[in-house]
Amino acid sequence: MNDLAAPVVFAPPRPGATPWLRERGQREVFCGLTSIVWLHRKLQDAFFLVVGSRTCAHLIQSAAGVMIFAEPRFGTAILTDRDLAGIADANDELDRVCLRLLERRPDVRALFLVGSCPSEVIKLDLAKAAERLNARLLPQVRVLAYSGSGIETTFTQGEDSALKCLVPALPATDAKQLLVVGCVADVVEDQLRRVFDALGIGPVSFFPSRRAAALPAVGPNTLLLPAQPYVGDAVRLLFARGAQLLEAPYPFGAEGTTAWFAAAADAFGVPAARFAAVTQPLADRARRAVARHRERLQGKRLFLMPDSQLEVPLARFLSRELGMALVEVGTPYLDRQLLGRELALLPPQTRLCEGQDVDAQLDRVRAAQPDLTVCGLGLANPLEAEGLATKWSIELVFTPIHGYEQAGDLAEVFARPLDRRARLTV
Amino acid sequence: MQLTLWTYEGPPHVGAMRVAASMRGVHLLLHAPQGDTYADLLFTMIDRHDRRPPVSYTTFQARDLGGDTARLVKAAAAAAYERFRPDVLLVGESCTAELIQDQAGQLAASLGLPVPVVPLELPAYSKKENWGAGETLYRLVRALLADRVPPPGTKHHRGPAARPRANLLGATAMGLRCRDDVVEVGRLLAQLGVEVNAVVPLGATAADVRRLPEADFNVDLYPEVSRPTALWLQRSFGMPFTKTVPMGVNATRRFVAEVADLADVDAAPVLAGERPGQARLDASRSRLPWYSRSVDSTYLTGKRVFVFGDATHALAAAAMAKEEMGFELAGIGTYSREFARELREAAQRFGVPALVTDDYLEVEAAIADAAPELVLGTQMERHIAKRLGIACAVISAPMHVQDVPARYSPLFGFEGANVLFDSFVHPLMMGLEEHLLQMFRGDFEFHDGAAASHLPLARAAGGARLRPGAAFGGTMSDATHAGTASDAAACADAAHAGTAADAGAVVQATAPLQAASGALPRWTAEGEEELRKIPFFVRGKARRNTERFAQERGLTEITIETLYEAKAHFGR
Asked: Is B526 helix (H, G, I), strand (E, B) or coil?
């Protein structure tokens, strides 16, 4: 519980570099289970079974909002008193629930057992459970286990955890190839793939793939290009399979997307002229789309609360391509390996804050009176009621924002709240 | 372990949050890990609160578990008090904290804060949200009134006020239309000359809670939340409480009589104008009785309705549907296990099966099975109904943002009955329109490709625009259609329940049925054509019944004759 007076301020490692705060306190951030909401849309043959409490079920339901599908491909095995008191053997119960579930859903090819805070605390070994179930179910269904618990993971980190548990299952290859790591919407994946094709870069695989039953291969000649800044643990596990990391900014905005493709182009020896011929028209179009929103955002002061782990790349995009002034850039955690290129592009002396003490941070928001605050759903309306414009950050993980064709949409996401305020006279 | 896809209720600590978020000057400290703050958005996004719920979270992490999470609780409690300066501090634990057994409540109490600290026991692995709200309210009221409880046997004294006074108990944040219900019930009491002493917990302060014993009696508005408190106030202060929930015209009239009795006032100012059984606009303070008797409502007759929700709303809506709307009940259920007995009794009275479950899939199967024409439920049933192609109105929490309207729209009292009449009828209008379009699918204007007129596509495609009831002609087609609908409904006997396959029923439910029964008889082209003339919302049932009829008689094909033979067989 840090109070405002005593945040830990780290000196910048070199003069002019970015200083940062590290806070410890109440976090107004989802836990890793929430990432199931988009993971299950991406992995179309997978079922995500949270082993947890009623709270877990309620959380996913609240985060998923109105997304009640015919029968969702996620659910919760809710622990009850019987399981805790040892009246029922938790492992037997889990097997029973899984088999019942798979009976209902014969279309499921991968079953993810997702650990939660309660299952971690009672030390229910889901990895062992997966092993046990695999002995019965493979090759029909592959059972995997990872933790999305709030005591270990924040929001998007749940995806990192899920990818991590898939790494050992990836087939091996020695071929030189590019592996894009992190969920992007299918439409974005198709767009990116077309650009790679035009550049002559290939083969290109995406991890995760759309089907868990058809996972991409990995090996010593695999080059990793993360599409999301929160896949650090999965990337580091892929190193153990021999893969190497292409360091790049993330494909947000015209500049970020070009730099992201350039990292791959360099590694695959794409001639500069060809790179320019392919990317320049796309970048120009993206810049035109972004420019429409510059007038609204230029010079406006931006405060990003920590939430999706996308804050640093977004701050870079908004400051460099839209001219916004950064008051504070919060991030749940700072992965220097995956964010290195991004941090270098932030304006000098940008205030970075790792972790959160929400009340102290809100004090800073109130003191700074930013023109726009990016925050979670729990804080948006209360801040609006204090006269501060907000953008809820969850939209950033549910809408396609990557690549050239979405650059304008991404800018619009931040311009919209200001546009709306300008329209209303009541 | 219980496999759950969607839940009707959150964990009990969310119930505690609902109580805290309803009040002023009350703060809740939750011993909880990161992620549990998700519940804040229920209040700020669904209920559109303009302030954060007054809740602090200790946010412990895995690395704290071996160490001193207890210290974290004390620090968080002290910090929460320092920052928010509440009049009362509630302390609870979420599911994970319950496992690490820090006794957060005792720890916070040991800090010696200058305000009452109320520890809450919220067993997350056996109890749920409404129970948690009820328990929290009870603990809070008990703690704040502990020093005011008179010796046993003391007779309750009317307060200093000249007029009788009542407390309204149980309205909370995230409760369906609680905001407007307390206004409506307050007006009703005022018309009887009864003052509202305190509304608790919605909008209440600790001081309001302290004033509770100054009232003559309590109105137990939402028994799921307020019954434990109402019982305790009765035991400790001899305060009686109302047993009727004023939802629907009849229930409101009974409620008025009950209040008049408890307050020892004359019910005539309100009830004198109520003339049950009379078909006149001025026969009630509510328009429902006249609207229901108005001839254009004839088509509502015998419409099959499935009701599911919390016990309070489900019971009241079922009685209304049957007695005030002229519907037929197709089933009734609740997720409130605490009121299972009351619900089963009501189901028996109505002669329909009772469903007591919090398993969403079970509710879906029961609805598909009953093949109703209207579902009155929660936001979950709205999704079920949408998938099955059945009309639906939301009458109970859990709710979504669209169930928190800007306009005044209570569910209780006479105005509440007006609101409910509209809510029940509007989705049916839409269903009717769709049916007409399907009936006239061969017609050159109302052809199959024409979408319903409420969809923008209809105009663009030059399709039909049909507004039932908009003109005399419309009303005529309603009446014609009503006959068809009830005939077909007769074909759908609950005792021979099938699934509404045509209406998109759950595939899983039908598949084993077909597998078990072997090859189905073949429909002749004429039989199939005739079947299509049956309203879509009962067509599935008619199809299944006919197939079953044919199968039992060893018929290999189904003709028009078979269809009507089956109809006569299953019809009532």
From this structure: helix
Dihedral (CA of A158, A163, A166, A168) sign: negative
Q: Break chain B down into helix, strand, coil percent, rounded to 5.
A: 50, 10, 35
Q: Locate tokens 């360091």: which residue? A: A247
Residue B504 has pLDDT above 60, yes or no: no
- Are B59 and A154 inside 8 Å of each other by CB? no
pLDDT tens digit sequence for B318-374: 999 999 999 999 999 999 999 999 999 999 999 999 999 999 889 999 999 999 999
Q: Does B282 touch chain A (CB under 8 A)?
A: no
Q: How far is B387 from chain A (nearest CA, A)?
A: 7
B351-357 contact pairs (CB < 8 A, 24+): B352/B494, B353/B494, B355/B308, B355/B331, B357/B333
- Interatomic CA distance for residues B424 and B426, integer angstroms: 6
| Cα–Cα distance, A290 to B430 (Å, whole number) | 42
Q: Which residues contact A213 (CB under 8 A, 6 or more apart)?
A: A45, A109, A110, A142
Query: What gap in Å lies between CA A165 and CA B487, rounded to an integer?
Result: 58
What would the pLDDT profile of A194-249 be if each residue is shown by its tens digit?
999 999 999 999 999 999 889 999 999 999 999 999 999 999 999 999 999 999 99
What is the C-alpha separation between A250 and A231, in angstroms, rounded? Answer: 12
Chain A within 8 Å of B207 (Cβ-Cβ)?
Answer: no
DSSP structure class, residue B28? E
The candidate with the shortest Cα–Cα distance to B277, out of B256, B249, B305, B301, is: B249
Residues of B within 8 A of A81 (CB-CB) are 123, 125-126
Residue whose token pair is 């599935």 = B540
Q: Taking the CA atoms of B71, B73, B78 and B80 in sequence, report the sign of the dihedral they define.
A: positive
For an interface test with A, which of B14, B59, B128 has the most A Cβ atoms less than 10 Å from its Cβ? B59
Q: Write the CB contacts of B564 (distance below 8 Å, at least 6 apart in sequence).
A: none
Please, are residues B127 and B336 in contact by the beta-carbon 8 Å criterion? no
Q: At B96, which amino acid appears?
A: T
CB contacts under 8 A, B 17-36 vs A, are: 33-36
At which residue do the structure tokens 């209360």 appear?
Answer: A382
ipTM of the modeled complex: 0.92
Active site residue B296: yes
pLDDT, tens only, B266-282 = 999 999 999 999 999 99
